[in-house]
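User: Working on a comparison across species. This one is Aquaporin-9 from Fusarium culmorum. Can you predict its structure so I can line it up against the others?
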Amino acid sequence: LTVTCRSCILLPTFLTPTPSSSLRNITSFVVPRMPISTINDSISESSVHKSSIPTKVEMSQNEKYSEAPSEAPTIPPPPEQYAWSRIRENCQDAFSEFFGTFVLLLFGDGVVAQVVLSRGTKGDYQSISWGWGLGVMLGVYVGGKSGGHLNPAVTLANCLFRGHPWRKFPIYAVAQVLGAMAAAAVVYGNYKSAIDAYEGGPGIRTVIGENATAGVFCTYPAEFMTRTGMFFSEFIASTILQFVIFAMADSANIGAGPLMPLGLFFLIFGIGACFGWETGYAINLARDFGPRLVSYMLGYGSEVWSAGGYYFWIPMVAPFFGCAFGGFLYDVFIYTGPSPINTPGMGFGRLVSPRRSTWSNTYNANSPV
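Assistant: Here's the predicted structure for Aquaporin-9 from Fusarium culmorum:
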């Protein structure tokens, strides 16, 4: 190693035949080749001290020399979520069911009001079936994020046979009833003048009779129907409803896929056209109880509960039995996917088993109870 021209130029000695061990350590630092004049111009006496000795630095091929280590890039924090965004996210299912049922009743009660209050000049019974079918189809589109149940009995069937979380059942049911009540109130506000004219004057509200308008909002049975016939009619219609819903949702079957709302349109139209005359095919607690409660509060009185031999409880109870039975029939005879029916004992074992070991997605079946 030699120092010349007062510039501390390091000359490698790897060309020496027998370099010493100390020189091997020093000469491992190789200065890139460049003309001496360039080195002398770029290195000044003030910037290099004779006592400074270069050290060996091992770097990868992709690394470059830098005077100071670069700081790690900082990731900006996510933007603060607005309070309403958090509420909407946490209540997404409830909002979806509320507005889906709202749209269903808006079209359903709306078409009944138009046909009844126009005395059949602006539609007929088939118009009512079309209107309810459209209401279901559009309601499912609106409430699709939550599954578009729009019916507590349908939610119950999904909890029983498709692993829908039981903790969500009361949330869905309350949202569906409130959505139906809101829609009934809107329909009443829209047709209030027509109701006054049909009834014979402002403030006159009747449930049974020639000019009765209570049937605009909820269902009432035909006069000849017996209590058993009322229940059976609602039970059969609800069984058909859930059986076909499971069929259209079954991917192993033909399935409706993205055409599910359209399939529901034809399903509701068919039920109304073929099984709707005797009781009005409520097949839905929310659809009947919510508007019935609104009509009671709007002045129709307690007769909304006592009419038809206290018929009001039948559309509240029969759809649950019907939808549960319809789902049971489909899973027993057709469905091959995950269902309590497709477990040992056809799902009845969990009624007496002390451990929750049967199929469900509402809990971890492998976790201790």
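For your comparison, note: The two ends are 79 Å apart (CA to CA).

User: Helpful, thanks.
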